[in-house]
Amino acid sequence: xxxxxxxxxxxxxxxxxxxxxxxxxxxxxxxxxxxxxxxxxxxxxxxxxxxxxxxxxxxxxxxxxxxxxxxxxxxxxxxxxxxxxxxxx
Length: 89
Fold this sequence. Notes:
This protein has one domain (2-82). 90% of the residues lie in helices and 0% in strands. The protein is built from five helices and no strands. Helix 2 packs antiparallel against helix 3. The N and C termini lie far apart (55 Å).
């Protein structure tokens, strides 16, 4: 069963490269924001999978929740900034 989690973790780490392309080459700021959000979501799952592999899931759940909250707050702040009139000038 551990080999399944190892393959899934490596695959997920490689899949993070797809939204990274969107962050770098996104035509608009909102495309970049969505790419960064997708990277954050994949990273949360990756953190949880690493917790399963190390057999310390209770520790990694706390880390993943803190990372999810920071990702959500960062997304709100950036979207609020770019939706105001100051950013459009």
